[in-house]
Design goal:
Length: 611
């Protein structure tokens, strides 16, 4: 393995040397096409994400891999303006500025703040015993690996309005249940991730809809189809979102049948034996998981938790005084309900204020009335990152006041628990900042990797292959860049006019091509190791990022294949979605029956595992 790592670093160095050499080429000795292709914004623009992803799987160190990816991208950017030798110090300056700008970006700053606020809230809910009480209440419905996975899946539909909130709310509540019932952290992270963006991306009211509709509107305008409503086209595209729908169905199928394959089956077999993967990829016994969490806390905090049983001291004191499970659960249920309600209010007020301050008369008229159309428009225009941050702060205040005023925790204890919840996400913050920095290096204001991929992969295509090619292109771009929004922004305005040009007046074909962009972009948001949703899913499940990505890809790639073979290809030939979608679900059932193996509900710790 050490030789492979050394070889990988040598290949990276060689690639950068070649990039430095080709960056000096001019049209005097080479054709313009060759100079553009081998420029830093050409074929080498995809080198940084390739380096980061490859190193991550080889070294098992995500932070170092992302950092090398950022430095590689910064060096390529420096080559655009500097000589190869002078590019090294310039690249270091670029890298640090990208990190600073990643934190300074309003959207990214809002995400970091919302993560910290939700982490602090979870710290209080845990200390109050509320999380444990809700877990115990849900445990009545989740008494084994099947029911616990189904409950975790169903909860995703209740937090449909945003993928970030979806992952961060369900994680702390369901993880104790899935751990106890022998569900692996890898499978739990897959459930979280697979019922977050895939749900938010098709919800009629969500933080995604405004972005998706705006890109559809731009594509329709470019195609000269102003008579078609962008929102109507969005709604009509939902049955054609084969990847979203098949992913949601596949999660339920694996939960109900307990059939797994590949790396996920190995993880599930270990979990049934009582072993879990921690966030640092270490394999630990289930009963040691919470002990490790306690030992990692400061000495004074451990002193406060001497009476603790798994999830905080307050629940233990409450039980000694005879408090009911229902009473204790309110200490988590009320703050979480406050968070969800506040999120809806903040989304609405944020979006309404933005619309009313704009100059779109039609939207202003809609926002001034209170109706479903008004709520939809306001949600679509809301600043999701700040809205969730505001809701998390309000939820934290409610939790803080309940704990302190009831005497469960002193003010000092409550502050300590809140801060510890924030500190528990330090690893997440670092990965997010590096991932954003890498995306900035290869983005439209950097190397333009997405633009290169689109131009390289979107050659002349037969009409029946267009939905498939659009899906594949969107999946590749979103996986390489880690951004679904960026992928939609680049490909949607190209795909809609292209589809209309190939088959003018074919509305079903237009819908399928539009859906191919939106669902293909979610593939990357769902699977890319540099996607923020993927990162948050792994940390919420306390699962190593690489373990999450590798096991999830084992399932996501076959689902994408079924989406193409049973969905976009038939639709390209004119087959109705009413036939294509059931066939796709049947293909997933066949896939599990052929390749999946039944995972026992319990396995002796001394048993020999056979994947």
């Amino acid at each position: 393995m050490k030789k492979i790592k050394t070889l990988a670093y040598c290949l990276i160095a060689l690639a950068l040397i070649v990039a430095a050499w080709t960056s000096t080429w001019t049209t005097t000795g080479h054709s313009r096409e060759m100079v553009e292709f081998f420029s830093p914004s050409g074929i080498f623009s995809i080198l940084p994400p390739v380096v980061a992803i490859a190193l991550a799987f080889m070294t098992k160190n995500v932070v170092v891999s992302l950092l090398v990816g950022v430095l590689t991208g910064s060096y390529l950017l420096a080559l655009q303006t500097c000589a190869p030798g002078a590019s090294i110090p310039v690249a270091f300056g670029f890298a640090t500025r990208h990190m600073r700008d990643a934190v300074a970006d309003p959207w990214n700053a809002g995400v970091l703040l919302q993560c910290g606020a939700i982490g602090g809230l979870v710290g209080l809910l845990t200390a109050s015993g509320g999380v444990r009480a809700i877990a115990q209440a849900l445990a009545k419905f989740a008494r084994g690996p099947i029911s616990s996975q189904v409950v975790a899946w169903l909860l995703g539909f209740f937090v449909f309005f945003d993928d970030y909130a979806n992952v961060q709310i369900r994680g702390p509540i369901m993880r104790p249940i899935t751990d106890y019932n022998g569900v692996s952290r890898e499978k739990f992270a897959f459930i979280l991730d697979s019922s977050a963006a895939p749900i938010a991306g098709i919800a009629l009211i969500s933080t995604w809809i405004g972005t998706e509709v705006s890109y559809i509107s731009a594509g329709l305008a470019d195609a000269g189809l102003e008579n078609i409503s962008p929102y109507s086209l969005f709604v009509e595209s939902i049955p054609y979102r084969f990847y979203n729908l098949l992913t949601l169905g596949f999660v339920l199928l694996t939960a109900l049948t307990l059939r797994e394959f590949g790396g996920m089956r190995k993880a599930e077999l270990l979990a049934r034996q009582g072993y879990l993967r921690e966030i640092d990829s270490k394999l630990i016994r289930r009963e040691d998981a919470e002990k490790i969490a306690i030992e990692e806390k400061p000495t004074e905090e451990r002193a406060i938790e001497e009476e603790a049983e798994e999830f905080g001291d307050a629940s233990q004191r409450e039980r000694r005084h005879g408090a009911s499970l229902w009473t204790t659960s309110l200490y988590a249920a009320i703050p979480l309900l406050a968070l969800v309600l506040a999120a809806f209010v903040c989304f609405y007020t944020s979006g309404r204020a933005k619309i009313l301050s704009g100059d779109d008369a039609e939207k202003i008229a809609i926002a001034q009335s209170f109706s479903f159309a008004s709520v939809r428009a306001c949600f679509g225009s809301a600043d999701a990152s700040i809205a969730i941050f505001q809701a998390a702060v309000l939820g934290g205040i409610v939790a803080f006041l309940m704990c302190v005023l009831s005497g469960k925790l002193t003010t000092a204890e409550a502050v300590r628990y809140w801060l510890n919840g924030v500190k528990s996400l330090a690893f997440t913050f670092v990965i997010l900042i590096l991932a954003w920095s890498l995306c900035s290096c290869i983005g439209k204001n950097g190397l333009g990797a997405a633009k290169f991929l689109v131009s390289a992969l979107s050659d002349a295509t037969p009409a029946f292959l267009l939905p498939t090619m659009i899906f594949v292109l969107a999946a590749i771009v979103s996986f390489a860049t880690g951004t679904s929004y960026g992928t939609m922004a680049i490909i949607t305005p190209l795909a809609i006019p292209f589809a209309n040009e190939l088959l003018p007046g074919d509305h079903a074909f237009l819908i399928a091509s539009t859906s191919a962009v939106l669902t293909g972009a979610i593939f990357g948001d769902h699977c890319s190791p540099i996607s923020d949703t993927t990162i948050l899913s792994s940390t919420s499940a306390r699962c190593g990022l690489l373990e999450h990505v590798s096991t999830q890809l084992t399932y996501a790639l076959p689902i994408a294949g079924v989406s193409i073979l049973c969905g976009f290809l038939p639709v390209g030939f004119g087959v109705a979605w009413q036939l294509a979608l059931p066939v796709g679900f049947a293909a997933l059932v066949a896939l599990l029956l052929i390749f999946g193996k039944k995972t026992p509900s319990k396995i002796s710790r001394d048993a020999t595992l056979e994947a």
